[in-house]
Write a structure and sequence with these properties.
2 copies of one chain form a homodimer.
Chain A (H helix, E strand, L loop, with lengths): L29 H19 L6 H8 L13 H24 L5 H18 L1 H10 L5 H4 L6 H16 L8 H13 L1 H4 L8 H16 L2
Chain B binds a DNA duplex (16 and 16 nucleotides) through loops.
DNA sequence: CCTACCGATCGGTAGG
DNA sequence: CCTACCGATCGGTAGG
């Protein structure tokens, strides 16, 4: 989430106090603008797709000129990477701490599902960008990301459950794992803020459905 | 699946017999080229995304010049529409005939799932384009498509099951329906031709998993 | 009128 | 952050 261009950030270089209200040349601290830019990118990429979003779109969104974006980034891809990297690492950290914790495998799987659902819903735009546009990252950058971790964490939990005898073992753990992941990740396609179902109860239900669907 | 430009197709106008092997100016009947173009578009759109695919890419793929594509289409979007329209209508026809058939709701739901999985796997590229790039269709064209039919068919079956008492009715049918759809549709993201699991057994397993996951 | 393209250029946008 | 631009490539169309 750090600004890749701001190698040496000098904090708060005496923000101009001159115009308290909006002026045409209003100055915003660099960090604030950077966060604003990332939020705008998440929103617009999620809506239109990365490839269909021009830097002009983003510049308009935050009220600067297109060329000025290069004060914050080196390329359009920087924005995609920052979003995708941030959302992935956050999600993995969540799941890893649960999956490696105590308790039987099925209980940990339930916790992983509810936690993942809440995280996904709380970060709908970023998740959408991750699930839709990661292919537009360069191979080099994509290789720095632990993209398969989600799949591995879930599949491993299912294998533990099979070893414990709580999960049916007549089916490949990977098939089950991808089914679970699909059910959960699909949420980004239909859930909208303000939906009658809360993220918490949605997660609880899907966890329940999975457990009764795969138990031995 | 018809060629929008070929208003009056004259069948097989004495295809040149001169060069039986490949010649530089090899002639292919119009319909054949059109199908070849659609197949190439499905393949390349699925791999690179609609927006990242140039008409030059497609022309290269089938071995003609970019400008020559306009003999077959009026715009790039024609190709997207044709693919998305074809795969959607085929899939809906499948499911509708099953959903409206006889038997109890849960049995029909199982059949819908297995049929849909096989159809999806048999048409992986087209399904990928449909699930990823439909947003790039113009509003006018998108509105001609029955995009919500899948969701409605599955949700309605679940409601019938709830009415019959075979499906748990303490949960919104839509939540269950989207869960089922997500699990099944997610297949396009990980299944590859040659995978050890056959489409048939994959469908059977997912149907099983759903039924035991949601039964009353 | 057709099939199967070519060479050149259109309005517009890309990243830099 | 702005002004003033570039090289290239985009989808699409011209006449032959």
């Amino acid at each position: 989430m750090s600004n890749p261009r701001a190698k040496h950030i000098v904090r708060d270089e005496a923000r101009s106090e001159a115009s308290p209200a909006k002026s045409k040349t209003e100055k915003k601290p660099r960090d604030e603008r950077w966060r604003e830019l990332l939020k705008a990118a998440a929103r617009v990429f999620a809506k239109k797709g990365y490839k269909s979003t021009s830097l002009q779109d983003l510049a308009d969104e935050i009220g600067i000129l297109k060329g000025s974006l290069y004060y914050y980034i080196d390329s359009k891809e920087d924005l995609l990477y920052e979003l995708v990297h941030g959302i992935l690492d956050g999600g993995i950290a969540n799941l890893r701490s649960i999956a490696l914790g105590g308790g039987d495998a099925l209980t940990r799987l339930e916790a992983v599902i509810t936690t993942h659902v809440e995280y996904l819903v709380d970060n709908l735009a970023e998740t959408t960008v991750f699930l839709h546009d990661i292919k537009h990252l360069s191979k080099e950058r994509r290789e720095t990301l632990a993209i398969d971790e989600y799949e591995q964490i879930i599949t491993r939990l299912i294998e533990e459950g099979q070893a414990e005898g709580t999960v049916r073992d007549d089916i490949d753990s990977r098939l089950i794992g991808m089914g679970v992941l699909g059910m959960v990740n699909w949420i980004y396609r239909w859930y909208r803020p303000g939906d009658t179902v809360t993220p918490r109860s949605l997660g609880t239900f899907y966890a329940e459905m999975v457990v009764s669907g795969i138990h031995a």
